[in-house]
């Protein structure tokens, strides 16, 4: 893709393209050219040059997001490239920065920020091999332990132990890399590279292990906490977590499915819910909350009213909200600040059509992302939806998969969507007329792919033509049948699959044992 480059950047590319020459000449390069050469090397995937640049980094800080982002010399944003060759070279270069010969007292580096790296679905690097968040967690932990082992086995310059570099990273821990990360965190105080966890995600992990490792991360620094797949964190455990650990800087919280289930609430559970709400109220920085696939019928106010800071992102998809919940949301002080809202899995046209539009009108001036998947939005509701979306001029993402809309209704809707100036991404459903007559919504997984693919492709072309004729080539329209791309899930799907099979096997064994006892 053509991008604007300055003559300086083109010269930098020419310099680093000859890796052997560039590596020999680094000692003669002015320090203020290091950032320029770093981005040029990253773009050309010159791993050896990247390694040497990091090993000899002359500044106090090393911020990957800023170095790879849009600059005066090169407008292309490379922070979306999680190139395995480049990232491994950077991290091993960081290890060798500690071990290299020059006097440690001359080394200036104090902070390395890896949090600006963004994991996306489509990669443009030549090697086509990515290093996701889980792999970055794994490699950094491994390098920290290698450093400690090196110090134990060799006589090092005493000054080496004076080196202290804070490495800011978004950790991603599963059962498979748990032990390695725990060891790195336990020995953090002895290692020159100090892992500083800014965001933490946990999947496929026993609850006891989650509680142990979260305390090791230094929760006082944590800004984002994601407890997602196969961590059985229920309401009593969440209350225990908030009672035992303080999260003063937490801005974003994602809870696993079924954390809350009001259908089996006792009086004790009602009190627990209030306690959790009060604890979240003490998190004065909290602006993003995801609680999908919990049962929260009639309890949204009790949970959210103690919050002192308005939410900018709220995901309550498939939470069985009732009319009272929607009335609270539309009247709450959160409504005017919501930039991202997910109400998927709720029958909006039948249960609360007017209240939903009231909520939409309150957040319309700031709303950037709206997700309404499996909401029973039919052709007769499209004009109302257009009316409700019209004030949302800042909308960038609109997802409405799984709704029973015909191809004609989709065309009508797309003509309107062309008018939203900031819109960049649309996820639309397979048209109802592509499925067999009598298909029941929401469509089960077994039937999801049983549609006329040729007819769908034809309709998708027509929808994209509508965008093209309106000069909206900047809008990406797609139908990801099994949901939006999740980089973390994609990276660990094999482990997740193995975990699910194991859980299913254990459940069958328990069921068989129970049957045998009954016999």
UniProtKB/TrEMBL annotation:
<protein>
    <recommendedName>
        <fullName>Leucine-rich repeat-containing protein 14B</fullName>
    </recommendedName>
</protein>
<comment type="similarity">
    <text>Belongs to the PRAME family. LRRC14 subfamily.</text>
</comment>
<dbReference type="InterPro" id="IPR050694">
    <property type="entry name" value="LRRC14/PRAME"/>
</dbReference>
<dbReference type="GO" id="GO:0005737">
    <property type="term" value="C:cytoplasm"/>
</dbReference>
<dbReference type="InterPro" id="IPR032675">
    <property type="entry name" value="LRR_dom_sf"/>
</dbReference>
<keyword id="KW-0677">Repeat</keyword>
<keyword id="KW-0433">Leucine-rich repeat</keyword>
């Amino acid at each position: 893709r053509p991008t604007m480059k300055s003559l300086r950047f083109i010269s930098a590319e020419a310099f680093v393209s000859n890796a052997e020459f560039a590596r020999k000449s680094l000692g003669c390069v002015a320090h203020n050219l290091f950032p320029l050469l770093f981005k040029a090397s990253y773009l050309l995937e010159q791993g050896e040059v990247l390694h040497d640049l990091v090993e000899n980094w002359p500044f106090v800080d090393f911020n990957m997001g800023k170095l790879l982002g849009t600059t005066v010399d090169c407008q292309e944003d490379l922070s979306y490239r999680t190139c395995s060759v480049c990232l491994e070279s950077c991290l091993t270069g960081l290890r060798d920065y500690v071990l290299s010969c020059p006097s440690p007292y001359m080394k200036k580096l104090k902070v390395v920020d890896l949090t600006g790296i963004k994991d996306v679905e489509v990669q443009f690097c030549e090697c086509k091999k990515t290093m996701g968040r889980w792999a970055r967690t794994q490699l950094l932990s491994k390098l920290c332990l290698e450093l400690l082992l090196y110090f134990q086995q060799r006589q090092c310059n005493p000054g080496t132990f004076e080196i202290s570099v804070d490495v800011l990273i978004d950790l991603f821990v599963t059962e498979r890399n748990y032990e390695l990360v725990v060891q790195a965190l336990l020995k953090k105080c002895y290692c020159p590279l100090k892992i500083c966890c800014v965001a933490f995600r946990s999947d496929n992990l026993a609850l006891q292990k989650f509680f142990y490792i979260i305390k090791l991360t230094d929760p006082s620094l944590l800004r984002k906490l994601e407890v997602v797949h196969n961590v059985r964190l229920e309401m009593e455990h969440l209350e225990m977590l908030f009672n035992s650990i303080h999260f003063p800087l937490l801005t974003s919280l994602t809870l696993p499915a079924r954390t809350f289930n009001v259908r089996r609430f006792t009086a004790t559970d009602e009190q627990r819910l209030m306690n959790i709400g009060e604890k979240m109220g003490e998190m004065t920085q909290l602006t993003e909350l995801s609680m999908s696939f919990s049962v929260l019928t009639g309890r949204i106010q009790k949970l959210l009213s103690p919050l002192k800071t308005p939410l900018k992102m709220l995901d309550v998809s498939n939470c069985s909200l009732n009319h009272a919940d929607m009335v609270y949301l539309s009247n709450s002080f959160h409504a005017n600040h919501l930039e991202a809202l997910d109400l998927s899995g709720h029958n909006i046209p039948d249960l609360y059509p007017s209240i939903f539009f009231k909520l939409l009108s309150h957040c319309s001036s700031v709303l950037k992302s709206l997700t309404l998947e499996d909401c029973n939005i039919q052709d007769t509701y499209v004009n109302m939806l257009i009316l409700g979306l019209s004030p949302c001029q800042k909308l960038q993402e609109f997802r409405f998969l799984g709704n029973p809309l015909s191809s004609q209704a989709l065309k009508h809707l797309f003509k309107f969507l062309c008018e939203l100036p900031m819109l960049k991404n649309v996820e639309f459903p397979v048209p109802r007329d592509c499925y067999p007559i009598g298909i029941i919504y929401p469509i089960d997984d077994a039937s999801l792919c049983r549609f006329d693919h040729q007819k769908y492709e034809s309709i998708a072309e027509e929808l994209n033509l509508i965008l093209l004729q309106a000069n909206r080539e900047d809008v990406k329209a797609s139908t990801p049948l099994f949901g939006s791309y999740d980089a973390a899930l994609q990276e660990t799907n094999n482990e997740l699959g193995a975990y699910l099979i194991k859980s299913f096997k254990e459940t069958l064994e328990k069921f068989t044992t129970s049957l045998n006892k009954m016999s």
